[in-house]
Amino acid sequence: MATLEAPDLCAAAANLPDFTTEAYKDAYSRINAIVIEGEQEAHDNYISIGTLLPDQADELTKLARMELKHMKGFTACANNLGVTADMPFAKEFFSPLHGNFQKALAEGKVVTCLLIQAILIEAFAISAYHIYIPVADPFARKITEGVVKDEYTHLNYGEVWLKANLESCREELEQANRDNLPLIRRMLDQVANDAAVLHMDKEDLIEDFLIAYQEALTEIGFSTREIARMAAAALVG
């Protein structure tokens, strides 16, 4: 097994933030809250989708339970650093996306609900976790690595269902993309300063998200031309 030489270890350590500073803890209080709230939203959303897809309710309940486990893990990450998560900030952060999901749920738009939760939010989470893991404290790194594996399962659920129903839901999917992808871009912009304190680069976050999102659209069955058009919605608004 390859091992890092001493200079490499020093270089790796130099790239890590100082987890003990007040500036780090202040930024972490909001980033961690976003993660905790995101997992809570995901739990609630999967349970809600189960009311629209009763034949899938058991599977969706399993996905929801995994999100609660993640939420507890990330709460422990904050406790480990002596940080109190800023939950009011996180609730406001998710408010636009939450509102769109609830509106779609009330209208019985399962396709829109799945795009928001199982594709957009999961791709957002996966990209953020990928960028965070190399600069996380050791306790949080271990927790986050386990969470990422689960999130791919959730992304795959959305891909499989939407692929199976693509021909009947293509128009709604494209509209849901236009309505919600710009929100994700604004969310990434909103969190950029705090992410930078944690040594997470905004452009890396955006790039990783768009890669994950476009890969999901490819799995669902959209063409390269269609995906390029849909991804351009991130530049709007």
Could you describe the 3D structure shown?
There is one protein chain. It contains nine helices and no strands. Helix 2 packs parallel to helix 4 (87-106) and helix 2 runs antiparallel to helix 5. It is mainly alpha-helical and 237 residues long.
Q: Give me the count of strands.
A: 0
Report strand %. under 5%
Q: What is the overall number of helices?
A: 9
Beginning-to-end CA distance, first to last residue = 49 Å
| Rg result | 18 Å
Shape: globular
- Structural class of the secondary structure composition? mainly alpha
Order of H and E elements: HHHHHHHHH
Task: State the helical fraction.
Answer: over 70%
Query: What is the overall pLDDT average?
Result: 90
* Poorly predicted sequence stretches spanning 5 or more consecutive residues: 1-12
Q: Could you give a short account of the major beta sheet?
A: none
Task: Give me a quick take on this structure.
This protein is mainly alpha-helical and 237 residues long. The chain contains nine helices and no strands.
Defining key terms:
237 residues, mainly alpha, disordered N terminus
Task: Provide the fold topology.
Layout: H1 6-14, H2 22-52, H3 57-81, H4 87-106, H5 110-132, H6 138-164, H7 166-197, H8 202-220, H9 224-231
Helix pairs in contact: 2-3, 2-4, 2-5, 2-7, 3-6, 4-5, 4-7, 5-6, 5-7, 5-8, 6-8, 7-8, 8-9
